[in-house]
Write a structure and sequence with these properties.
Blueprint (H helix, E strand, L loop, with lengths): L4 E5 L15 H11 L3 E7 L1 E2 L4 E2 L5 E6 L2 E6 L10 H20 L5 E6 L2 H13 L4 E5 L5 H5 L3 H10 L1 H13 L2 E4 L2 H11 L8 E2 L14 H11 L3 E6 L9 H9 L6 E6 L5 H7 L6 E5 L3 H8 L4 E4 L13 H7 L4 E3 L3 H10 L2 E3 L3 H13 L1 H18 L2 H20 L9
Parallel strand pairs: 1-2, 1-7, 2-6, 7-8, 8-9, 9-10, 11-12, 11-14, 12-13, 14-15, 15-16
Antiparallel strand pairs: 3-4, 5-6
């Protein structure tokens, strides 16, 4: 296999600067590709999407990993994930990408994430104009999510206002040689937007994860585990406190279980709903907020947890696999999920947790397992086996990289066949 110049376009993932940052999809793919001798360029953002803070105050290029160069572009930042300011931020980054890509060394292949749809469309346009193969990795339904949060009576107006954004979305997906995704439903959605059937090059690669080892756990977390977890059943939520992953139902369930001894609910994260959630849980002794936590802290808490919470807001799309699922599975933590579709089916098929639809049902299921620890232990064993067989990041990103190489090879050798099933 010849050594390739590969562009990865993804502005929303955390950058590999802080050693405590968990390695997510783009980083894992970049590391695997670089380990094969490829030259990887990651087009990113100066803004930390998760923590809503700046990495850099200007456009910055650096090489944090051997073989991986990051071009971090500065937008205006934003405080809410679903907001006009975020749209403007991505437009600024898109315009900078267009200008800087013109003078950058031409790649052999591009993998662009989606969202944001406008940056993905710019990356696809760059590739098409230069006859370079390009794949779009669909992670979420944009700009549909902006319409989802509107009241029913305003959804039609929202779609009309965003008509051009929907056009850009469809254009990006239609012109790409391959569509990748983290779940089957999201891949099907992407193909529907592209108005075409699935081919052999369209693939699902789970986000995946890996088991943390030999990491230094902050003293605060060590103390929490030693003082609050001993003898307790621990139910944990990891993630951003936002509309799309709102853990309000978990706090309501915790309130119903206040009288149950040795049962604690742990919320690891931060976000726009942080203050409201803390006020909701005021004086609830069975609820613990840790604030934002690094990967070592998350792993340490999950290693002492008995259930991992997958919750969402009432208006949220619930037919996908949230990132936190793979963090839970990596540590053998059974799932308690409100999501529909693929995640619900996985839980039911492999018996790696339970599904719920309300705070009342969540409270009932947690209390049932609290009283039946043997059943919970069996779930945990199944969870470990499921992770090893389907979700180990090392296997996933080797396979992902194989398909990136194959797409470039077939396109270069003129053997790419979009109807090859």
């Amino acid at each position: 296999m010849p050594k390739l110049k590969i562009w990865l376009v993804q502005p929303s993932e955390q950058l590999p600067i802080d050693p405590g940052v968990r390695r997510l999809r783009t980083r894992l793919l970049a590391e695997e590709l670089a380990s094969r001798g490829h030259e990887v360029t990651w087009w990113a953002s100066c803004f930390n999407h998760l923590r809503k803070q700046w990495y850099f105050d200007r456009d910055t290029t650096f090489e944090p990993i051997k073989g991986v160069t990051i071009h971090a572009l500065k937008g205006i930042g934003y405080s809410k994930n679903v907001s006009l300011r975020r749209v403007l931020d991505h437009r600024i980054i898109t315009n900078k990408f267009k200008k800087q890509s013109e003078i950058a060394e031409r790649p052999d292949i591009i993998v662009t994430s989606f969202p944001p749809h406008n940056l993905a469309n710019a990356a696809v346009s760059y590739a098409v104009d230069r006859h370079i193969p390009v794949a779009v990795d669909v992670r979420d339904k944009w700009p549909d999510n902006f319409v989802d949060v509107l009241p029913t009576r305003l959804k039609g107006i929202g779609r009309l206002v965003l008509k051009y954004e929907f056009y850009k979305r469809n254009q990006a997906l239609t012109r790409a040689q391959a569509i990748y995704s983290m779940t089957e439903p999201i891949l099907s959605w992407g193909l529907k937007c592209a108005n075409r059937k699935r081919t052999n090059y369209d693939r699902v690669f789970y986000l995946g994860s890996y088991r943390e080892s030999n990491t230094v756990v902050p003293e605060q977390i060590q103390r929490l585990i030693a003082e609050r977890f001993k003898g307790c059943m621990v139910v944990t939520f990891v993630g951003t406190f936002s509309t799309y992953h709102n853990p309000e139902a978990a706090i309501q369930a915790a309130k119903k279980l206040l009288s149950v001894p040795n049962l604690v609910f742990v919320f690891m994260g931060d976000g726009e709903l942080n203050l409201a959630l803390r006020q909701m849980a005021h004086d609830m002794k069975n609820v613990i907020f840790t604030g934002w936590s690094d990967s070592a802290s998350i792993a340490a808490v999950l290693q002492h947890s008995h259930l991992g919470l997958c919750t969402s807001g009432k208006t949220s799309e619930r037919n996908f696999l949230p990132n936190k699922v793979f963090s839970y599975l990596a540590e053998g933590v059974p799932l308690a999920s409100i999501f529909d579709g693929e995640l619900r089916d996985l839980i039911n098929t492999h018996k790696i947790g339970f599904n719920f639809s309300s705070a009342e049902q969540l409270a009932d299921e947690v209390h049932h397992l609290y009283q039946n620890r043997a059943q919970l232990n069996v779930m945990a064993e199944r969870t470990k086996k499921f992770f090893d067989a389907h979700c180990d990041a090392a296997t996933i990103y080797r396979t992902y990289s194989d398909w990136v190489e194959l797409l470039e090879k077939d396109f270069r050798e003129c053997t790419f066949n979009s109807t090859d099933l």
